[in-house]
Every structure is written in structure tokens, then in C-alpha cells.
Fold:
Amino acid sequence: MGEITQLLQQVHAGDAGARNALFAAAYDDLCRMARSRLRDGGRNAMLETASLVNECYLRDARAGEVRAANRQAFFCYASRVMESVILDAVRRQRAERRGGNAAHVTLSDEIVANLAADEATTQTVLEALEVLEDSEPPLGRIILMRYFGGYSEREIAQALGVTERTIQRHSRKGRLLLKAVLTE
Structure:
């Protein structure tokens, strides 16, 4: 059993210091996830890697409960928290600068590789991802893990207990559905 899984068990058992130890042990991986999300000139110039990771820790501490049972579940949870932090930052910045007018966005099948690096696109994609998750939860989770978590197809397959080919098929279907939502 890995260190993070052991620390998660200690957190669930009520160990007061285990939460801090958990984030200390996972810090490098969380930074890697944050860098992956913010790379390419920063889709969110208002956020830096360390501030994104720190905000994830603070939100987790405020929530009071870590629902993850193992390493993969913890990082999937952290990816969702990062998504929330980024979306909140984008909404706050757009409300301040632009009054909330969203631009129409059209994306190709290569949504992960070819996203424009601006706040409006990020918010539009996040809102479309919420619609996708409501209608097709497994597809939404896969797109989320690729886009926000920076996971490879192999890592997603291992985390979800399916084959890499299944992830490729679901990724393609998820991108097409996400594109359809974005073009509506």
C-alpha cells in the first residue's frame, strides 16, 4: 500500500495531523497537475501553480472530509477541486473585466491539444463539461481527467480499471459530444 493511501486511511481514522502529511506527500504530484493545467502561457494568467495547489488544500480543509479511498481517487478529487478553483477565478475575472459576455467558441476533435488560452474559452469548456457530465458521467470524468488532471490514457485506464482502448473510444465520443454542446 502506498504512502498516500496509508495517509488517507489515517485521515479517515481521525488522525489530526494526517491531512497535512497527506498534502505534503502529494505536493509534488499536485504541482505537476497544476502545471499541466496552467501550461502553454497559462490559460488562467491570474493563477500560478503554487496558488492553485494551496487553494486546493484550503478548500479541502474547509470541506472537512476527504472522501477518497486511494491514491487515484485522491488525485481525481484534487483534479475536481482544481477545476472548481480555476472556474471561480475565471468567473471572477470575467465579471470584473468584461461584464460576463461570453464569446462563441468552436472546437475541433482535438479539444485537449488545441484550446485557446483565454478565460472565456476555459469557462465555456467547463460549463460544457458540466453538461456532458450530467448526460454521460463516465465520458465527462475521462475528459476531466485528461484536461484538468493531465492524465495519460494509460493512467486513466488504470484508475478506472478499464483498457486503454476503452479510454480512447470514450475520449473520442466525449470530445464529439463536448463539441456538440459547445456549438449549440
Q: What stands out?
A: Residues 64 and 120 are 32 Å apart (CA to CA). The longest helix spans residues 71-97. Confidence is low (pLDDT under 50) at residues 106-117. Residues 1-71 form one domain.
